[in-house]
Amino acid sequence: MKQLLLIILVLSVFFSCEKEIIIDSQLLAPKIVVNAFIANDSVISVFVYQNTPINTTENMKTKSDASIVLTENGNQKYTLKRFFTLTRNTHYYYEKNALDMDVNEFDTTYYYSIPEFYGIPGNNYKIEVSCPGFETVSAETTVPFPVKLHAIDTSSTISNESNYILINSYFKIKFSEPANETNYYRLVKFENTGQFYPVYNETDTLQYFIKQHSSGEDRFNSNDPVFSNVHEDANSYIFGSGWNSFGIFTDELINGKDYEVSVYESIGYSNDYFESFSFIDTEKGEFKTIKFAFQSISSDMYFFLKSIDLQSYNDGSPFSEPVPIFNNIENGYGIFGSYASSYIEITNGEYPKEGIEYLTFEEALKILDKDKNQ
After folding, report:
1. Is the peptide bond prior to 352 cis by the omega test (within 30 degrees of 0)?
2. pTM above 0.85?
3. What is the pLDDT of residues 170-210, one digit of tens each?
């Protein structure tokens, strides 16, 4: 009898978990998705998509028939022009696995911009986006004021970690944090290096100072408390905190203070590789520049980046609720955010140095090909 009661109890639990899920028809309706940022140091670019309904598997593609009006401080209006770039269709490229070029190998990405138009700190901007067959969408943002940067200090350590060598580079950036207001920040790191390389092409060799520039997506680590509190919540004590991959933080702990934010990067090399590794030879003319963009970002941009991080961290976890992506587009989806950047950098070596020609790998290879064909 006890066994029968147990079976009935277990079955009742399973059947009680059944629930009819009714999908809101609004989730199936096509809507406009906008991705746009305006800043004091980069020309505004607006990307417009049609959302992918949950009952399809199509990839979002940029819209080529959008009309976009930008309003500054409620009165001055600008009409954005359409531009396009060709981006490689990765799936097509690998499936074809051929050297022949084909128009289907590339996707056309449309965007809308105003050449040489930059956001002015303190000014308010509103965009209105219209597409045939869709409801007009809109959003607005106010460009923050950049912070004042005072100094950057750097140091490094080299340690032997059993089977590899670990190099830690530390950076401290001192800035003034405005008082009596809530501010949001993002730290982005760039690198620009020039090293002496031989460039090979069959039997020919050229030796140049090759200049390489990072795109600003370099990741860094930090034990600074201003970063660690960004994604802290009740679940963090059980499942850990999400990775702050965008380098965002608030002034919650430092409001109105002069503060020195600390970050570091770690690079590991195998013992064999490290023995042949060449550091920057400044006497030869090599150099390395580390530049940080210290961005004051709008609250919309902060919560948008934070939601992307949290969704990525919780994706697939059976113990976490799904994280919706932050949205400030009225009648649609997406983000219209803003930021203002201050820059500070430190250089090991001298650049440019008189008498030295700096090239990219691509430029050096073109010279090799040209010499070979003459």
Report:
1. yes
2. no
3. 999 999 999 999 999 999 999 888 888 776 666 666 666 77
